[in-house]
Recover the amino acids of this structure.
């Protein structure tokens, strides 16, 4: 959600940069292409603001059952590539060194690669270009908190890997007294191409507003959640609908700036996605199940504040429509 900057931005970004710079650790070994965009910090529950730049996959041994499922060409090249938008803390963002991709999704992707005995290449791309990139073969998979919809399942293989919720943020103190189900006629920021834009906001608008003769919720699509939160602070929009983990992190990192409304809009399982009928899908699914069954899964969830969002089975996804 990248849009023009306003007077409030230096205040917001300075506070966030300070919060990120206040903690740090050693760098990791994988590559983040096109990296460098500074991001605001958001995320889940009681998550620490620690950057966790250490490589969580160090010491992880390949799972032979998963490795046997690898296509010969992938095994020969020795690498696997992942696409993600590194502008969404705490799931996917850049450390303060502007070199290291951190968050739950980079951690989980490193674990997938290590479980398959491969090196990981991280590609930092805009969320709404990821699916076309997978279809074109530019990336092997994405771990980007992507929900399974009927339309996406037509072109993607999608494997469950944890749960995420959609929530709504408003300015601190909620001066307009908005509620999750009282957004009719208000301007709500969403990330372009996200499930919030494509599914949850239209569904909420129909359910709460237009079906009852009230004005629809006005979706304001922006390139990243950072821009949406900036517009919220500058009062250009009334609320932001996004992954709950990201919104809660923003509220934690910027005290007295944002409130996250209760109840949440929804809580659903999210997926790792590959090109439809990818020869890599069986190996990646087996690797995800191996991770879920290992102590590393709880470690990865816990260090980003996601301890309650784990799942038991790396199932092929069904539509969340």
């Amino acid at each position: 959600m990248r849009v023009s900057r306003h007077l409030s931005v230096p205040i917001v970004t300075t506070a966030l940069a300070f919060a990120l710079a206040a903690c740090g650790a050693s760098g990791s070994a994988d590559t983040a292409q096109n990296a460098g965009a500074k991001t605001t910090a958001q995320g889940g529950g009681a998550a620490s603001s620690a950057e966790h730049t250490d490589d969580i996959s160090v010491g992880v041994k390949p799972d032979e059952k998963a490795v046997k499922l690898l296509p010969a060409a992938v095994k020969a090249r020795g690498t696997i590539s992942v696409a993600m938008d590194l502008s969404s803390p705490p799931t996917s963002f850049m450390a303060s060194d502007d070199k290291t991709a951190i968050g739950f999704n980079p951690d989980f992707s490193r674990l997938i690669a290590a479980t398959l005995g491969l090196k990981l290449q991280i590609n930092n791309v805009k969320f709404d270009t990821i699916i076309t990139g997978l279809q074109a073969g530019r990336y092997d998979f994405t771990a980007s908190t992507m929900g399974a919809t009927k339309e996406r399942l037509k072109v993607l293989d999608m494997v469950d890997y944890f749960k995420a919720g959609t929530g709504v943020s408003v300015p601190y103190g909620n001066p307009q007294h908005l509620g999750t189900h009282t957004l009719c006629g208000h301007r709500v920021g969403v990330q372009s191409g996200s499930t919030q834009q494509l599914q949850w906001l239209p569904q909420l608008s129909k359910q709460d507003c237009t079906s009852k003769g009230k004005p629809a919720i006005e979706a304001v699509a922006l390139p990243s959640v950072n821009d949406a939160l900036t517009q919220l602070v500058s009062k250009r929009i009334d609320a932001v609908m996004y992954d709950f983990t990201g919104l809660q992190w923003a509220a934690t990192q910027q005290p007295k700036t944002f409130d996250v409304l209760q109840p949440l809009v929804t809580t659903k399982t999210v997926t790792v996605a590959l090109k439809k009928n990818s020869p890599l899908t069986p190996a990646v699914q087996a690797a995800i199940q191996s991770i879920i069954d290992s102590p590393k899964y709880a470690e990865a969830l816990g260090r980003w504040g996601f301890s309650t969002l784990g799942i038991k089975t790396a199932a092929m996804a069904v539509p969340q429509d």
Observations:
- The two ends are 24 Å apart (CA to CA).
- Residues 9-163+270-309 form a domain with the D-Maltodextrin-Binding Protein; domain 2 fold (CATH 3.40.190.10).
